[in-house]
Every structure is written in structure tokens, then in C-alpha cells.
Amino acid sequence: MEPNVYNRNCGSRQVLDRIGDRWSMLVVLTLADGTKRYSELAARIEGVSQKMLTQTLRGLERDGLVTRTVHASVPPRVDYALTDLGRTLLDLLAGLESWATTHLSEVQAARSRYDARVEAG
Q: What ranges in the chain are assigned the alpha helix state H?
């Protein structure tokens, strides 16, 4: 069977869901400049709960996009880094980040026009 992202049961759809998730995207972009500890990721990504960050990191690790390294120290230290496969996402996600920041004012203006139209009934 050929991959088909429009088929909800296709593995390619699951991969797209993972990399299209807002927390996954922000984790990957945060790891772009190197290895980070859990606390560094949590501090950088405002609004992510501990539960969601943990779930996101586990999903990214399961999909082979992130590595998790536990160091035998007291207290234990855990580092996260992008794999080679994870690094292949950087140009795509950086492009999305750039588009969002470049076109923010246009999107905000469109939202305002839409909201005004909806309120007017």
C-alpha cells in the first residue's frame, strides 16, 4: 500500500500528525542549536505543561527524531537532542516559523476583519 496522508489509518498520517503538532514543532526548533535538559525545554517553551512536554518528548523519541540520554549522576541528568532524522525537519520547521512571524500582522488583520463581520451578523 502506498503512503497516503489523507487515509487516517496510514502511518504517514501519523508521522504528519506528530511533526505538525505544535509542541513537537517547538521542541524540535528548541533543540536546533544543540542538546537541552528537560528543564531548559520547559523554560523555553512557554505554556507547555509537564505532562504534554513529557508526552511530546516520548513521541519524538519513539519516532526516531529525538534521543534521550540519561547520565548516571546525583541527581540524575537527562539530555535530549535531535537525531540525524530529526535534523532533516529543521529547514521545514524554520520555514514555518519564519512564515508565521513574517505574516503575523496580516493574519491578525484578517482575524479582526472576520471577527467584526461575525459580530455584525
A: 11-20, 22-30, 38-44, 50-62, 84-87, 90-102, 104-120
